[in-house]
Design a protein that fits this description.
The structure is a single chain. It contains 15 helices and eight strands. It is mostly helical and about 400 residues long. It has three domains: about 60 residues; about 100 residues, no CATH class; about 190 residues, hpI Integrase, Chain A, CATH 1.10.443. Strands 1-2-3 form a three-stranded antiparallel beta sheet, covered by helices on one side. A hairpin with an 8-residue loop joins strand 1 and strand 2. It is elongated, with a radius of gyration of 33 Å.
Amino acid sequence: MKGSVTKYRIKASSRPRWRFRVCVGKDGGGRYLYEGRGGFIKEADCEKAMRQFLAEISARSNDLRAATPAPEILFRDWLQKWLDQYAAHKCQPKTMERYRQLAAYVTNSTAPEISGMADMPLSKLARKHLKLALFTLLQVKAQRREHISPRTVRHIGGLLSSALSEAVELELLPANPMLGIKGLPAAEKPEARALNPAEIRALRDVCRNDWTFPLVEVAMAAGCRRGELLALRWTDIEWDSRILSVSRSLEQTASGLRIKTTKSKKPRRFELSKSAITALQFLRDQQKEHRRLFAGDYKDLGLIFCQANGDYLRPDLISQVIVRRLRKAGIEDASLHSLRHANATNLLSKGVPVAVVSARLGHADPSITNRIYNHALPADDKRAADEWDEIVGSVQ
């Protein structure tokens, strides 16, 4: 509320008077309503009276708010609000799709332990309610599994914790009740399935003389992620030095395909093998023929890996095609991402420094490379033991 002090004159007096006026709101028609008093001889007395009047109005407003408290927000409503108003501004579309899937396990559940927690006022939510709901989720049937995996339940817990942390920051909660929850089963840590040299040869033999050969060859030689491969352009290659630049990624979302930055949000440059360059030269000549056949219908996006008409390849379909080629080569439990693991594992086994492999893969830090591939190098463990035997033998 704002007020103003003005001077005015009255008849039969040579001395001016002072009055104040305060805006107290609007009427039903949207017109401003004012209250005030006048007749003050001194301006200072008028200003003092106005301040007292404003304090009285403020006190009445506070009393009214205390008498009619605002309805408390339910946890399910807060979770939805957090997704729409806070997470959506920070996260990539694909991440938001996953967040909404995880949130649906809570908001759409019919289990009383979960739905009761979701329908609880935010301020009443306690650690015991969250813990009971998370343990109940471990018994819920998943779409393609008997139960939701511990890994997924931990991801749900992380999502709930992020939403509650935002509530704490906005002073809707005094503390995050998710903090300190213990006893959840450890998440299953999938091992990096890499192809050994024999499997690499088998896959190359299956894909040879096939349109997938250049893709497989570059995927194994460069160790790029799927989206990075499908976003590569011919201008990303420096032919003389065999340098490849990786600066973008193709992402598939529910609303379609989009180009985004790499996972680390940093471009990287590294040298390709001669075999990969040879495969790319063959693919470039093949694309020239496609461009001629499609003529005006060719969609020239400058892509290295694309459909015959030049358009983007769908990531999910490419993954399915590569899995079929892997199975044809007699390789089970592997995927397109296994080609990235094959690059890293075999380079590390040959003694290439972790820092070099990490930079080629686009990891934010070499410690990530160590964590992912440390358990995937049993041959290196044996070699270390053999090398130590040689060291000990040499000093006897």
